[in-house]
Amino acid sequence: MVKVTACNPSALAPAKAFTHALAVEGAQRWVFISGQVALDVTGQVIAPGDLFAQLEATLQNLGHALHAAGATFRDLVKVTIFVVDLDPDDLARIREVRSRYLPQDPPIAITLVGVAQLAFPGLRIEIEGTAAL
């Protein structure tokens, strides 16, 4: 039988119409992380418009969601990254920052998507993830 547990840590802005993380247990344990963005615990956008400050904050929020579900960055197997107004000149720096958080040996599956906008004005990046335990 599969057991699904919603995990919404107090370290993240309150979830509205979604769950920050779902822990799925059965033969294996999977954690599905909803798209994390650069919002503080009050729901305010961190560093509006600043891609790299938001990348750090978003990865930290991803870590909070993983922790709430009993996982770590090492457990990630897939992330999807959405970037507003993606500039190819930013890719190297995105990879450098990302590599400080995400598993590198072996590298995890990553999808990077350029988008026109995200849910709130001022947001530049969103990251969703899947972890296997």
UniProtKB/TrEMBL annotation:
InterPro entries: RutC-like_sf, YjgF/YER057c/UK114. GO terms for cellular component: cytosol. Belongs to the RutC family. It comes from the Bacteria. It comes from Rugosibacter aromaticivorans. GO terms for molecular function: deaminase activity. This is Uncharacterized protein. CDD domains: YjgF_YER057c_UK114_family. PANTHER family: 2-IMINOBUTANOATE/2-IMINOPROPANOATE DEAMINASE RIDA, PROTEIN HMF1-RELATED. SUPFAM superfamilies: YjgF-like.
